[in-house]
Amino acid sequence: MGKLDGKVAVVTGVGSGMGRATAKLYAKEGAKVVLAEFNETTMNETLKEITSAGGEAVAIRTDVSKEEDVNAMIQKALDEYGKLDVLANVAGIFDGMASVENTTNELFERVMSVNLNGQFYASRKAIKVFKEQETGGTIINVASVAGWLGSRGGAAYTMSKHASIGLTRNIAAFYGSHGEGKIRANVIAPGSIATGMTPSDPSDLDALGMETYAQLGKYHTGAPEDIANAALFLASDDSKFINGEIMTVDAGWTVR
Asked: Which of 81, 157, 175, 213 is an active site residue?
């Protein structure tokens, strides 16, 4: 028996890193997974890995910054599997630690559109589905420790992750009582994860102007699977009494 047997999950950003690891683990634990990703090549690689391992999944190319793409993504779950139980908003981009004065309008708008707008569009559509099907559902948003600290990303990235946490907690507050708490929303705040988006070696810090990181001492780097494990817990019935929580996954980095 898998922890997600009988559940239907949509996962964004499945082409690599945390999104791919989460989609694979969900499928392994029995979920039917809708894979959403901008890069069709990497999306199809993930699809092949899941189906080759005996999992069930379908894929749809999705630009999460576009509402019409996000709506089609949710509709794909309904068309293929007849319902939606889990939405895991994992897709995200980094801003290279750009300070306010070095953040162009183009960079700001791109980071916010992917990291925040995508989560908002998907959550809004999913909540409507959850209410209509009367069985509820759960939303897992991936933010960052930059969502509650000021020095773990550039200006746009930090703003987007703060907003992601605010969005998640607002959803939990507004909808947590619907159907006796059947709609839940929680957020994962990863620390440094080896995904290719951020440096995994202390020697790379200076190149990004990340002196603050260096001052913290040992640079702990986790694996995408560490985030996938947290996303599995929050998607499963094991967390049925958890709503509006910020789950920090950083090996204790931020307590220092």
From this structure: 157
